[in-house]
Write a structure and sequence with these properties.
The chain is α+β, with helices and mostly antiparallel strands. It is 49% helix and 25% strand. Helix 4 packs across helix 5 and helix 7 runs parallel beside helix 9.
């Protein structure tokens, strides 16, 4: 079977067709592409197209090697998409708070990153990353080190301790840089106030207005903390 680089566009068009339309295609080039992707279900067609584009043109006489490369890239993209989905779900369910990132260390007993955070109230709070020898753990540790001495928006979740059903560890999901002075984007601030209001939009709006926060533009950490306190008290 001979495949040419010009068939890439044909592949994209073929994949975009419905199953019934694909079955009616009879052109030789399209028939060859159908052989390649015949065992791929609809949800993965876009991954095959992306992998084929990333692999580049197929040299004549190297069809088998090129096909293996496309297959490998498709699997890689699928795994990346799965990990991204898990990370996004973790962020969406995470609690957020603002803190000054004072120090980043490696905890000897667990090999996790250990961050020392200073809350606006002045209290100190530790939070951990995944193990340093994991890709995600190392990435979070490196990001945290780049943000030492700055205000950050912390996304955290609780991870249950192994063998201890009633105990959990505060874990870091993500850090957003808020700068040296600490100003929070308006949309992010509103989400945090809404979170403190228990999801009650009217209560969050009332706390926002009572604090005198602007409808647009960044807000200071002090202003945000006042609004969060009002929302929390109203929800309590």
């Amino acid at each position: 079977m001979r495949m040419r680089s010009s068939h890439l566009d044909g592949l994209a068009r073929l994949i975009s067709l419905s199953a019934g339309e694909r079955s009616r295609q009879t052109k030789p080039g399209q028939q060859r592409w159908r052989t390649i992707i015949g065992g791929v279900d609809n949800s993965h067609y876009s991954l095959v197209v992306a992998a084929a584009q990333a692999a580049g043109p197929c040299p004549e006489g190297e069809e088998a090697a090129w096909g293996r490369r496309v297959h490998g890239l498709t699997v890689d993209l699928h795994l990346i998409a799965q990990q991204a989905r898990q990370d996004i779900e973790r962020l969406e369910s995470a609690r957020t708070f603002i803190a000054f990132l004072e120090k980043v260390e490696i905890e000897e007993s667990s090999r996790r990153g250990l961050l020392t955070l200073r809350l606006p109230s002045g209290e100190s709070e530790p939070i951990r990353t995944e193990q340093k020898d994991t890709d995600r753990g190392l990435a979070l540790i490196e990001r945290a080190r780049s943000l030492e001495g700055r205000w950050v928006l912390v996304y955290r979740y609780n991870e249950r301790k192994t063998g201890q059903r009633n105990q959990s560890v505060r874990m870091l999901a993500h850090l957003m840089d808020l700068g040296v002075d600490g100003t929070v984007p308006n949309t992010t601030a509103k989400k945090m106030v809404l979170q403190e209001a228990g999801g009650d939009v009217a209560r969050a709006q009332q706390a926002w207005t009572a604090t005198g926060l602007p409808g647009g533009g960044s807000v200071s950490i002090d202003q945000l903390e006042q609004a969060r306190t009002k929302a929390r008290e109203a929800a309590g």
